[in-house]
Amino acid sequence: MASENSINLLIIHQSEEEAERILSLLRNYQIAVRPTRCLEEDELTGILERKPIDMVLCQQLQNDLPCQVVVDHLKRMGLSLPLIALLESFDPDLIQEAIEAGASSYATPLLPDHMKHVIQREMRALHDRRLNAQLAVELKSTEKRCNLLLDSSKQAIAYIHDGMHVYSNQSYQELFKYDDFEELEVTPFLNMIAKEDLDKAKKTLRDINKNILPEKDLEFKLITSDGSKFDGIINVSKATINGEQCVQFIINIPSVDPEVEKELFEIKNKDLLTKFYNRSYFSELLSGALDEASKKPGDSLMMLGIDEASRHEKELGIGNLDLFIVSMAEFLEKKLGPDVDYCRYSDTTFILKIKTSIEKAEQVAEKLKSLCGEQIFSAGDTSVNCSISISVTQITPQSGSVSEVVKTLTEQLSQAMESGGNQIKVFDPAEEEKQARAASKAWIDRITDGLEKDRFVLHYQPVVNINGEEKEHYEVLIRLKAEDDNLIFPQQFIPVASKYGFITDIDHWVLNKAVQAIKSSANPVMLFVKMSHQTLTDPAFPSHLAKLLKSSGVSGDKLAFEVRESELVTYASQMKPIIKSIKATHCNIVVEKFGSGLNSFSILKHFPADMLKVDSGFMKDLGNNEENQTKVKDIVDKAHNLGKQVICEFIEDAATMSIMWKMSVNFVQGNFIAEPSDQMAQVE
Fold first, then answer.
1. Which PROSITE patterns is this protein grouped with (predicted)?
2. 156 near 250, Cβ under 8 Å?
3. Is-contact 55 122, C-beta < 8 A?
4. CB count, 10 Å around CB of 443?
C-alpha cells in the first residue's frame, strides 16, 4: 500500500469523465488516491504484475472488462484485493449480480458518502489482512525460535492436551527418566502422578478441559518411569502448538534457594533472549504505574524501534538478527542503567519505563538516538550500524488504559519510521489535554460572549421564487463577530456549541432575531431558519415558538424551519410530535439535504413537510452531469405530484440556472443569484 492515507486504485470504467468525477469525489473526502484506469483484459494482467494495486473499482454495467473477469484474474494471481462494484443505483438485481461475480462490496457515485464509507471500510479490512499475513509469518518465525529455546531450556517443560503429552523438552524427559519423546507421547500425564495425588490431578485436568486454569502453582507428588517419587511444583499456563490450544506445564523442584527462585521468575516474566521483561509482565507493571499516576504525572515511557528492521533481518538472517537484538539490549542497559524497566515489546521494538519527566525523557531519547547512530553492534560473525526511532510519552491522569498508552506510542513510532526513521515523536497527554481544553474554552468564551453581548449577526441570502411571487424569501445565516470584528462562519463554532450545550441558545437567538426582522421589514417576507436536532427534539420548543409569535404579532406562515433529512430519520420518534406542534402554529417545514437517503420520499409519509431542499451534492457541475440532472428531475417531479414545493441551492452558473427553469423548480438559491448580505435585498 502506498501509505496509510493513500490508495493505489485501479478503476475500470468506460467513461473517463465519470472515472475522474469519482476520483474527485474521493479527493473531496480527503481520500488520497494514486489512480490507474484500465479497460481491456490484456492490459489488466500487465497492470497487476507491474503495479502495487490496493483496490479495484469496477463499473458493473459494462462488457469490456466485467467484474467476474477481474475477480478471476485476481484469484489466478493470488491477489486478495477488495473489488467494489460501481452500480448505477441500488437495484437488488444489480447488487445480487455484483456479489455473485465475487465483488467484495458495492457502491454508487450517486451516494458519495456511502461510497466513501465502503472504500474506507474495505481499505481497513485489506490493511488488517495484510497485517495478519505479516503477523502469521512473524509468529511462525517466533514459534521456531521458541521451540529452539524450549529444547535447550534447563527447565522441565511439557505441553499437555486432553491429558496427553504433545511436546516435552529434553529436561522434562530427563526429569522423569524417559529416553525419548516417543515414549512420552503415548503416556498420559496422570502416569506422572503418584497414587496419593491422582484424584487432585484428575480434578485439575477436568478444570483445564473446561478452560479453568489454576490460580496458583500446583504441588504434586510426582513419579518417574522407574517408580521413584519426588515433590514437584507445576506452573500451568495457556499455550498453542501447531495452531492447537493446549496448556504448558513447567515442573519445578521445591527449593528455598534464591537463585532458583530468581531463575523461575525470569523464565516466567522475562524475554529469554534479551532478559528484558516480556510484554505480559510489563503490562502488569504499566497498569500499576497508571494507578499510581491517577492524581499526578508519573514515569515516562519510550518505545524504541530499530529502523529498517526487515532489511536487517533479510541481510543478517534470523540467527544473527537475534544476536544483533541482544547487542542492542546490552547497549540500552549500559547507557541507561539499572533504574529503568526494560521490555522487549516485539522482535525489534522495546519499551522503557524511566523515572523522570517527559522533558528529560525527550532529552534522554535524543542522546540515545545520537549514540546509537555512532555504535557498531555485534551480530555473530558480522557487525551492524543502525538508526533508531523513538516515541516518548508520560504516564499522567489523562493517559487512559494500558492498551491506549501503548497504542499511542505505537502510532507515534510508526509515524517516525514512515517519515524516514531516525526521529523522535513526543506525545504529552497533559499538554494535549491542556491545548484541547484551551481551544474549547476559547470557543466557549467566544460563544457565551456572543450571546451575552449580542455579537452574533444574521445574514440573508435570497431564495428566489421562479414564478415571481411578490413575497420575498431569504435563508437566515448566522455569523459571529470576532474580537477584531471579522466574521466567523458557523462551520467553526457550531460543532463546539453542539458539544457543550450552547446550540439551543443559539437557535433561540436566531429565531428571536428572525421574528424581529420579519416584523420590521417594509415588505412581506418569509425567512428560512435552520434548526438543530437538539431544538427540534425539545418538548418545550413549540410552546416557546407559539408565545414568541403571539407576542410579536408575526404569523407563523412567514417562517420556514429547515431540518436535515438524515436527522429526521435518526430522531424520528422524538421529532414527530414536535414538528406536528410546530405545524399547528402555521410555520412551514423544509426537509434539507433531500435525496441523500436510499428512499427519501418515505420520510414524507411520517412528517408534514411543505418544501424539499435538494441535496447540494447533486448540484455541483449539474450542467455536465446527466445522472444528477436525472436525479434532480426525478425529485422535482415526484415532489410536485405530492404537492410539495422544491428548492435547489448552490446555483453557481447560468447553465445550472437554465436547467432549473426547464425542470420547473419552485425556488432557487445560490451565489450566482445573490450572495448572503447583512441586509434583506430583493434580487432584481
1. EAL, GGDEF
2. yes
3. yes
4. 20
